[in-house]
Amino acid sequence: MATEANTSAPAEPPQAPAPQNTQNEAQPKDQKSKGEQPAKGGEAAGEKKLSGAELKKKAKEEKAARRAQAKAAQTSQGQPSGGQEGAGDGGKGGKGKPKQDGQGGGQHKGHHAKPVAAPVVPKEVKPAVPECFGHLSMARRINITQADKDVDPAVLVLGQHMSTFALSDSITRLEATLYAFKKVIDSYTTPIGTTFSRHFTSHVLNPQIDYLTACRPMCFSMGNAIRWLKLQISKIDIDLPDLEAKKLLCESIDNFIHERVTLADFVIASTAADLIEDDQVVLTYAHHHLVQRALLQAQEQGKQFSVVLIDDAFERVGVEHSKALAAAGIPVTYVSDLGALRSNLRDVSVVLVAAEAMFSNGAMYARSGTCDIAMAAKDLGIQVVALCETINFTERVSIDSLTYNEIDPERLSDVGFRLLFDTTRDRYISTIITELGNASPTAVPAILRKLEEL
Amino acid sequence: MATAEPPAPEQAPTTELPIRTGSDSADFDIVATYHSLLKSDPDLTKPVAAINALIALLNTVPSTTVYETLDIIKVHSERLKASVENPIPLAAGTDLFNQYIISSLKQQDGSFDAVRQHLLRNGRLFAQRAVEARNGVAEAGWRYVTEGSTVLTHGASRSVTGLLARAAKSRPGKFKVIYVRDEWRPKESDRVVSELRQLGIPTAEIDLATVAHVMASLRKVSMVIVGAEVVTQSGGIISRMGSYQIAKLAKSSNIPFYVAGETHKFSRIYLHDQNKLGFKQSVLDFKLEGSSSHLENPVDFTPPDLISQLITENGVKLPSYVVEQILDIYGSLNG
């Protein structure tokens, strides 16, 4: 199909980007999914009779219909067009690519799995993201019926949770993903004539990943864990019986979660709690379970301290957080937004925040607004402590908030959009607390190197 | 512990091993051994003295099992740490020794006797290496003292004087030193200054209050080199009180601030700021009458962002080198 599209392209007048999108999207997908070849072969043969222009027209209609359907499913959903994404991702390799493949593939497969009914005349109300931000991705609600037929029910549900931000922070998403994958592994049987390690990743795991990525771009920890999982799968002896291979894999997933998440969280929370001293004022931003755990633990240890909680004005997760802290007996000052930041920081002794990810140059990727607080705190000589599990460390480098980010799907309009994260440079962070202990942000590359050895 | 007093104390107890076999490890006075070691050998730094004291301890205690030995080492390390006001430098030594034993046990497939014998036979090795390391620091760093430069230093670090001596050997009379005197230790200051002058280095003496003035005078100071008691995990240093002040002044005048220190001073301790040095140090003594007391051996913490480079026997490194080494040796960041 890909080759057809290519040969027909020159005959076409260089037209609107939409048809080429389909072509772009079709390409990686078709190369990948060789398993569905028979079915597709028939389809392709049918399509071959159409002329190039007709083919394009059909593809365009189908795409429009899909969009309309998606619109109906979710009114506020935006559309950072695939063309922009394709252009943005074309240059860079690495993780950008699977993400791109995922989005294209997911959609396209959706259409194959369930041919779209009446093509609704599309009234394109697309809040356009300017081209320079085209590389930024966004969570989108994908109708369950549009998902690939190979997607496991557990993963389907997980995808819905992720796209609606019911699971939002990186560690919760990571954990849920790994548990869902365990179910996928559990329900899998190797077809005759192939082996687990060769068949599973490409034919079963990848569609799940594609679907999840289509629901919401993967976070760095998920990328790290999936890379790890694929490595484990590839290491499985081809002579190992299915049952044992599955058991082995599930066990190592359990161990992975135990070591990198459960134990890590425990160590980080207690290290952070040790940091808090009597008569201190701890400032924290919005809500993160690590920070909450650390504060509650310090309270349990009998430390007398108070908390200033600045909430995220766009997502009031801090309300519940402050209630929980207050219920535990910690005096909490609730601040609704970043206004009057400096006066709120005046009596603060330490800023405690949690990171979504750490870049290898020591920069912290966290809820947007964190950087403002860190900069103001550093300016006032207050130490800024970031909590982060090492599974969230990425070898990539970022010095701004635009290279890697996500658009808030709830806040995308014609006049603007909001980003979910920001990047805090290493100089505004005093300490990062990981399960390996306290470290300065400049130690991130050394830690990454150490993790590779393990 | 009179037995541990001679300059080569490890050999002495070895010969006396049979006499001591009956005694319990509790009888061993690790504190006295440590102090006598420190006094008897001017080349010993605190971490190395602590290591040697632990080796002397192993000499006196008949080893039975690995676990028991590790336990004895732990108990005595704690005792030693509790006995001094500032335990951080010697803790760097005891930690390293503990890790050394554990890792050599791993390498030797748990043949504990072999490790123990090796240790006892090579008790002097640690001290030797410490001296070699100091020479290595001098060798790695002396070229930084360029012709016509002026080095500002303070304290009585042997690594620094060693480095300056090495530089004076190759560039006699080609550089000058400004020595910052310690008001509370006139004798020590006199000694260091006369040492430097004997090396043929033109030396000026100033007090701490004059540092900013001297640094601000254009090109009067080319660099600062100080020693360290401990290099913390983040690449900062715990050093003689005043180092932090000099580092801050150097930073604001854009003068490079070098730290000369051997890698055995690298410690797993992580300091956030001046508040928590890892031990109690009450600098402030508020009084209405009488003269304020002053501390015997006060230290402060210089954060890594004020330090240009660390001069170690492995070469001249950025502060972030420390964390790599710590991860290599211990596998984790905090104890």
Short characterization:
Chain A has 16 helices and 13 strands.
Account of the 3D structure:
The complex is a heterodimer of chains A (454) and B (335). Chain A is of the alpha/beta class and 454 residues long. Chain A folds into 3 domains: 1-26 and 35-59, no CATH class; 92-115 and 132-267, no CATH class; 276-453, Rossmann fold (3-Layer(aba) Sandwich), CATH 3.40.50. Chain A contains 16 helices and 13 strands. In chain A, the strands form 3 sheets. A 7-stranded mixed sheet of chain A has the order 4-3-2-5-8-12-13. In chain A, α1 (2-11) packs across α4 (52-73) and α7 packs parallel to α9 (196-215). In chain B, the strands form 2 sheets. A 7-stranded mixed sheet of chain B has the order 3-2-1-4-7-9-10. Chain B has a 3-stranded antiparallel sheet with strand order 5-6-8. In chain B, α8 (123-141) crosses α9. Chain B has 2 domains: 2-121, no CATH class; 136-330, 3-Layer(aba) Sandwich (Rossmann fold). The model of chain B is unreliable at 1-23 (pLDDT under 50). By secondary structure, chain B is of the alpha/beta class. The interface between A and B is medium-sized, with 20 and 18 residues.
Task: Describe this protein with a few key phrases.
heterodimer, A: 454 residues, Rossmann fold, 3 domains, 3-stranded mixed sheet, 13 strands, globular, B: 335 residues, alpha/beta, 7-stranded mixed sheet, 13 helices, 10 strands
